[in-house]
């Protein structure tokens, strides 16, 4: 997972500027879009065979749906659904893969100092952002929900998971999508795909180089609400890029903006100088978790935190349209929108 040097959505759409020129005539581009994990999924591969290309994409989407059916909070019978239904009652035996991801979530919680939390479900459900019941909850209800987000009340017993607190809810939404991207990449590689990309609602993985041998150019969307242009781009090969910010899922109440990234400490959507954080990493799982965690941490703490991690880079954008980067990515980022300025 993460290797400390000294010691880590709202779904922010990262716009992919995929230049698809092909220098190898035998290779053809095959693409399919499906609605998965509550978002638009897109997989593109380059193959010499239409049958093989389409079959490989189909396998990848099947793998994504397997993860969704096992780890969704809302699909009746999923592991997470059953864990929540049995909170305070009894342990639930789960699939080894679910157990693996829960253990990863516990590790991420420790790495991020509690900022990332897979048992934040009571608060997420209370706010209901993106749901029919989205609203600003009464302060009393927020304080009550905060009493039921202690990850120490989550117990793993052999191959079973038990939530001791009957009012605590698990939600793997902040990690499962990135994991699904990584698993889809594994499927493509196992089928011999050397060039392509996966985009699950902004969680992106650029597989290999483009067929002409050059890296993929991936854009970071303008985080100002109502804007859709890419404000910067970066060349990637065999890397993931994931963003989190305050302009994806949100609602307005009494002229106040409330987004979906909840700060466990306050129980409210995170409020600081940031509008988006983009993570470039070797896995989308890391990117999914760390983009959220760094956003909640804020600019100074988030930058310091990401700099302390190996093989992780980040781009932070503030409300005044200043772009901050970690040291390893500074010279690789190209600004496309003159209204945005690199600070460091």
Automatic annotation (TrEMBL):
Keywords: Cell inner membrane, Cell membrane, FAD, Flavoprotein, Lipoprotein, Magnesium, Membrane, Metal-binding, Transferase. Mg(2+) binds at residues 174, 288, 292. Gene3D superfamilies: ApbE-like domains. Its EC number is 2.7.1.180. It is a lipid-anchor. Magnesium. Can also use manganese. It holds the Pfam family ApbE. Its cofactor is Mg(2+); Mn(2+). It catalyses: L-threonyl-[protein] + FAD = FMN-L-threonyl-[protein] + AMP + H(+). GO terms for molecular function: metal ion binding; transferase activity. GO terms for cellular component: plasma membrane. InterPro entries: ApbE, ApbE-like_sf. Flavin transferase that catalyzes the transfer of the FMN moiety of FAD and its covalent binding to the hydroxyl group of a threonine residue in a target flavoprotein. Belongs to the ApbE family. This is FAD:protein FMN transferase. It comes from Alkaliphilus peptidifermentans DSM 18978.
